[in-house]
Amino acid sequence: MKQILFILFFISLLNLQRIDNTFIIQYLLTTVQIGVFLFYLSQDKLIFFKKINAKKKYLVLLFYLVFLICILRANEFSILILINFLGFNLFFLAYVSELIFIYENEKLSFKDIFENYIITPFVFYISLNFVCWVFNIKSDLSVDSEINIGQSMILANYGINVERVNFLFSNGINSYAVVLGAIFTYTLSNLFLTLKFSLKNIVFNLIIFVC
Asked: Could you read off the pLDDT tens digit of each residue along the chain, which spans 211 residues?
């Protein structure tokens, strides 16, 4: 089950509406996400709610409310946005519950679970965008096709002139930059803290830096 949830989490990171302007794929994905949540609910497997007390549950609800308000302010209001928000977050509760189960029943540390099931899907996501960019794979949608949008200001300060790119599966320049920054901070810090300078780690950090 954990492998299926892993794949579904990775697919959830992709902005599938970029390649399907009818949104059929996105609606199908949301249906599957809600289905996973209902399955865990029916099987009494939503461990996440059992691990937090009543006060913390209200904090979780408050967090989701603020999160929803931010999304609605950043995007033009639509039913699709609400459905996507509901589907992904219900699925994520089931996903976290599965990770808690793994932590309690398998000999894996919190760090291993976080890297294997949270960071790794983002690694695949970033790598897929990079590969599509290298091979010039673009969406057929003219509005959402990959386009260069000015130079990277940060790299320009170091004398490196690179055009910013709206990658195929990204949800826009700024939001994708946040994802890259968060993952790059974690992987680079982990690289120097553990001193595991493997080729895989070095190559991935270089990919993020280029992106």
From this structure: 788 899 999 988 887 766 666 567 778 888 999 999 999 989 988 888 788 776 677 777 787 788 777 776 766 667 777 888 888 889 999 999 999 999 989 888 888 899 899 999 998 999 898 888 888 877 655 444 444 455 666 666 666 666 667 788 887 777 788 888 888 888 888 878 777 767 777 777 777 777 6
Q: What is the token pair recorded at 138? A: 């673009």
Q: Is the dihedral of CA 30, 31, 35, 36 positive or negative?
A: negative
Whole-number Å distance between alpha carbons of 25 and 130: 22
The first and second tokens of residue 12, run together, are 């959830």
Distance CA 2, CA 117 (A): 9
CB atoms within 10 A of CB 165: 19
Residue of 48, 180, 183 lying closest to 115 (CA atoms): 183
Query: Cβ distance 145 to 165 under 8 Å?
Result: no
Per-residue DSSP letter, 148 = E
Question: Side chain identity at 193, as an amino acid letter?
Answer: L
Burial level of 192, CB count in 10 A (0-12/13-18/19+)? exposed
